[in-house]
Design a protein that fits this description.
Protein name: ROK family transcriptional regulator
Family: Belongs to the ROK (NagC/XylR) family.
Radius of gyration: 22 Å
CATH architecture of the largest domain: 2-Layer Sandwich
Distance between the termini: 12 Å
Oligomer: single chain
Number of strands: 13
CATH topology of the largest domain: Nucleotidyltransferase, domain 5
Organism: Devosia riboflavina
Pfam family, one: ROK
Shape: globular
């Protein structure tokens, strides 16, 4: 948990700490907030009053426990401001509206036929407004919009699987373009980085301070949380693991772009393999149906993916020393679990220890919404989650 700092110059940080402490524990009294945030009672009292006035917190009443006057409990206001998260993928768009407690208030998954800067901003605007209307809320309740797109940024055409990156965006100020179209504050991020933030806040990484997240988008991305913070890199491109060439446990070794990991281990690679067998799988549900039917082509791909991913997991463990490696994104839970099961035996690494609190690889808990959830968290990073702010050091 983040720790507050009492000097006035850190007041903005302290507000984030107070909100994070309350959000994490669901409801607390002022004394307990002060203890957990390591702030003075007076500082907490002032901040709580401000947050109540701004509609970010609500008062729940008194919690009866023990002797004396029961403490008044405070919680993040579920009917307060909202944020929107939008994932722009090569062939679809995921949109989610979240309240400050992390509750998904509205969501949608729509196909995308065009992904260029001349069409996508208007689609985002229309869909966010449609979801707001479905909730009966006006745009004044929206704190901002997070938009995530597949990387790498400013390196158009690098993707090994072709459509994993979005053509036409090189040199475009995406945040400014989306802000103009929506009339909102917009934050733009790499999809794998947003996905690891989503898993950290709402999924299997909620209790973890350091973990790696292998994100199955159209390509394959990597998000890394180190000491509670996302690793971004100098240009926002940290984690482009899909472009790394690795030797599989068995089978033929490929060199150069043809040997890039996402050419074999990605949703695109799976669809390509299925198409060669005359099978069209456009959605996660299509892939799930194939798995339920024990489709042999899918089973072969799972085995091949595990041959590439087993050394990948060991490499990530040796580089980042994570608590675990989480698998998630645009594949059905059952397929991810089958891939993880097929990793055994994993190569020896620094993670090969007898006493582990978690397996070396686990499945994420937020499914197809992972990147959109992370996107919706982006406008909150300066308000709610000091752990995840990339610009403000924890005191």
């Amino acid at each position: 948990m983040a720790i507050g700092s009492n000097p006035e110059r850190n007041r903005a940080h302290n507000r984030r700490v107070v909100l994070e402490v309350i959000r994490f524990h669901e409801h607390l009294g002022r004394t307990e907030i002060a203890r957990r945030a390591q702030l003075t009672p007076q500082a907490v009292a002032n901040i709580v009053d401000e947050l109540l006035e701004e509609g970010l917190l609500v008062e729940l009443g008194r919690l009866r426990s023990g002797r004396g006057q029961p403490p008044i409990q405070f919680a993040v206001n579920p009917n307060g401001p909202l944020t929107a998260g939008v994932e722009i993928a090569a062939d679809h768009m995921v949109t989610a509206l979240l309240d400050l407690s992390g509750g998904v208030r509205a969501k949608s998954i729509l196909p995308l036929e065009a992904t260029g800067p001349d069409t996508v901003p208007d689609r985002v605007t229309a869909e966010v407004q449609r979801l707001e209307a479905s909730l009966g809320v006006d745009r004044s309740k929206l704190l901002g919009i997070g938009v995530v797109m597949p990387g790498p940024f400013e390196v158009e055409g690098m993707s090994s699987v072709g459509p994993a990156t979005l053509p036409g965006w090189t040199g475009v100020d995406a945040a400014a373009l989306f802000a103009k179209a929506t009339g909102q504050h917009v934050v733009v991020e790499n999809d794998a980085t947003a996905a690891v933030v989503g898993e950290r806040l709402y999924g299997a990484g909620r209790q973890l301070g350091s973990f790696c997240y292998l994100y199955f988008g159209v390509g394959l991305g990597l998000g890394v949380i180190q000491e509670g913070r996302p690793l971004r890199g100098a240009f926002g491109n940290a984690g482009e693991i899909g472009h790394v060439g690795l030797v599989p446990r068995k089978g033929k070794v490929h060199y150069g772009p043809a040997g890039a990991l996402e050419r074999f281990v990605s949703v695109f690679a799976l669809r390509e393999r299925l198409a060669m067998a005359g099978i069209y799988a456009a959605t996660v549900d299509d892939i799930q149906k194939l798995h339920d039917e024990a489709n042999p082509t899918l089973a072969e791909w799972i085995d091949m993916a595990a041959d590439y991913l087993a050394p990948t997991v060991a490499m990530l463990e040796n580089i980042f020393d994570p608590e675990t490696v989480i698998f998630g994104g645009g594949l059905p839970d059952s397929v991810l679990e089958a891939v993880i099961a097929a990793l055994d035996p994993l190569p020896v690494s620094v993670a090969t220890r007898g006493k582990r609190s978690l397996p070396r690889a686990i499945r994420g808990q937020t499914g197809q919404l992972t990147a959109a959830l992370g996107a919706a968290a982006l406008p909150l990073l300066d308000t709610v989650s000091p752990h995840l702010s990339v610009s403000d050091p924890v005191s």
